[in-house]
């Protein structure tokens, strides 16, 4: 499933969700790791045409993003804003409250996408499955009320998604998971596609580890690009919504220049073949 070229705000391609909405295939990730840069977010919005911002309650920068979005002058309706529910807020009532609080911190009346951040619930006396189902029922309600225009999950594996399917009504619109040349969970990608769940990838540069790999450096030279651009373009060509993180304006600029070239099929295969199963972020495989 390749991204539809064009059709997005400022020429960024979009992918259709099962509910008829369209998500920009390239976004700006934010995090508590490595700090937060107000200037970088403003630059991304004003100068790079970025319209998709990904954050989370856990990152602690929702209220800072409100300021950056205001300063950028970009209209709310032109933005795609994703945030995530942390496990300390799981459960039916807590989820609804946490969503309203995230909206308040972000200064918005609705979220484009709200994600359950992690499959482990940490609730004493209740199974993870029970808590995930209860939490998802609240997400479904937030979606039906229009407070969340799309809902999804993050770091969910096939087993977690299968349980949710049995326990709930609405299929998640998105699953956001670690995705880079060393961590390409194709079975999970195929499963998501079979159920019309858009696959979104974080850590596309493997926290910098991919940038020094000889094969990626070689491809960067071949295409006259940077290693980061090769990784991001490869991810997008594989049909993955991709959200690189950076707090440097010049890096964000570089990360956005990925729509004016195509990686040849043979070279995509070289990158596909680099999967070795390593995680640079959390590993959800031990969560039941």
Task: Explain the overall architecture.
- With 288 residues, the chain is α/β, with parallel strands linked by helices.
- Helix content is 38%, strand content 13%.
- It contains 10 helices and 10 strands.
- The chain has helices at residues 38-47, 62-72, 92-106, 128-144, 158-167, 186-194, 214-223, 227-237, 249-256, 265-272; strands spanning 14-16, 22-24, 28-29, 52-54, 80-85, 113-116, 151-154, 174-178, 198-202, 241-242.
- α1 crosses α2 (62-72) and α3 (92-106) packs across α4.
Could you name the key traits of this structure?
10 helices; eight-stranded parallel sheet; 288 residues; alpha/beta; two-stranded antiparallel sheet
Summarize the structure.
The chain is of the alpha/beta class.
Low-confidence stretches: 1-9
Proportion of residues in β-strands? 5-15%
**Helical segment tally?**
10
Subunit organisation of the chains:
single chain
Biggest beta-sheet profile: 8 strands, parallel
Q: How large is the radius of gyration?
A: 18 Å
N/C terminus separation? 30 Å
Helix content: 25-40%
Strand order, sheet with most strands: 3-4-5-6-7-8-9-10
Mean pLDDT: 95
Cα shape = globular
> Can you count the beta strands?
10
Topology order in helix (H) and strand (E) letters: EEEHEHEHEHEHEHEHHEHH
Q: Which structural class do you get from the secondary structure elements?
A: alpha/beta
Could you outline the blueprint of secondary structure elements for this entry?
Layout: E1 14-16, E2 22-24, E3 28-29, H1 38-47, E4 52-54, H2 62-72, E5 80-85, H3 92-106, E6 113-116, H4 128-144, E7 151-154, H5 158-167, E8 174-178, H6 186-194, E9 198-202, H7 214-223, H8 227-237, E10 241-242, H9 249-256, H10 265-272
